[in-house]
């Protein structure tokens, strides 16, 4: 839309308006339209206001509002605030650093998310490279589709399906027992193993797509040129392919890290008492009676700041461009 | 023999890459296939091996009022979310794409905020927000939560398409006498159609799949993921597998159809 342009002479008058067939014609002919949208559409200032007001109101109310309210409540002693007025305090933030019960899961969450990100990168990179460069172009779409289909199943269904594989009476333990490798089932569920397995299962797509689109853009001539100059496969990878796919690596890692930090479904179904990570701590504070809300808000704000600044720092250090969602 | 060996070794990286792809495909498909297989088991508990097979669980699920209710409720929420998210998303994209608006980069960054905030924090901040505004948990809150999450994705998809649109199209419409509103409806919206279709599919699927926002914003009526979650917590039987399989097949069919559709419209 070219909203900044002023209306031109000759098109401002409503008399010149053509007659449209169908429902648009009915709408534009109606007196209601001429008195409302017609007037707005004819006046540049009204159009500008119309263009700006709804998006700004939406963004301020629903994108900034909730975070602002969370920040406000994180400074309160109790919520709801007593009638005498809210007392602002930093106690909720102090509680986090004083209490290892909260502090340790947070550290664990950060390490867990970093490890999951690295593992996902290592697992998914060859797959993305294979689809983007090795497969013949006419088969590429189909190969990619095969990887996308599982992700159309929701979070809950995918997490639940991991239980089928890893449970004590699940497929893997059954197979190992039939083969005779074990006598009694290995408890795999409710451990860090099942948790990471499930999380990687949930998020691999967010690594795959950025990597795929970055690797696909690398011109094959560059790789061929490196080969002609005598670079072996490893050298070609290290000096040509890897640097040129940096954008994809940075976007993929950032996305995966941010999602893993806030992962909630997987620990709920696949985690156990030994694998308590921070999202569960926060969620528990909101499930309990309301007097824990200020602490929960403070913890959420801390997690938000730490996770976003970790990603920001990572992007700055590695030097990729900012995360793009498309 | 010698030439075979040498060929084998020069192809080694390719073989390894191909193997990694197929292992990854198996990793992705195995748990879901096991889950589907379990839905045909003739026993009231989930355990391997499967000795005898039955379709009874499907018959049971298709008569389950709770399940059918959850399907209807989830679809209703998804449709409402999609309609609102498309309107708001297109509106924001138009603002970001407009020339001569101050601070567009800032507006765009803030518009994308809900997509980069970790899901749990997004859900919790919405829970606090509706409490402060005295909005009850339930249908309205869920739709609001899903919409806030979906809008950034609509903005990005629509904006990408909008940036490739020549100005001459709307200018021509106006020179032919259309006012701005008609030019928008008759020229801009049809041009955006592929992006709108893609966004709509994304909104529907992400709303139907969403668990964490519904978990915090929902009332007593369960959506599909909430119902499946409640059943998993309340003791597992192959009935859950039958439910999940139906949901999986329908969403995958919608996704495949959308993929097919967008590929055709691009060509």
Automatic annotation (TrEMBL), chain A:
Keyword ATP-binding: no
UniProt xrefs under Pfam families: BPD_transp_1
Location(s) in or outside the cell: Cell membrane
Keywords from the UniProt entry: Cell membrane, Membrane, Transmembrane, Transmembrane helix, Transport
Domain (ABC transmembrane type-1): residue spans on this chain: 106-314
Listed transmembrane segments: 48-68, 106-132, 144-167, 187-209, 248-270, 298-318
Membrane topology qualifier: Multi-pass membrane protein
UniProt xrefs under InterPro entries: MetI-like, MetI-like_sf
The UniProt record lists the keyword Membrane: yes
Family note: Belongs to the binding-protein-dependent transport system permease family. CysTW subfamily.
The name this protein goes by in its record: ABC transporter permease
The species this protein was found in: Ancylobacter radicis
From TrEMBL, chain B:
Start and end residues of each ABC transmembrane type-1 domain: 71-258
InterPro entries linked to this entry: Bact_Polyamine_Transport (IPR051789), MetI-like (IPR000515), MetI-like_sf (IPR035906)
Record field: transmembrane: 21-50, 70-98, 105-130, 142-162, 183-208, 240-258
Secretion signal span: none
UniProt-annotated location(s): Cell membrane
Membrane topology type: Multi-pass membrane protein
Similarity section: Belongs to the binding-protein-dependent transport system permease family. CysTW subfamily.
Protein name: ABC transporter permease
Species, as recorded: Ancylobacter radicis
Taxonomic classification: Bacteria, Pseudomonadati, Pseudomonadota, Alphaproteobacteria, Hyphomicrobiales
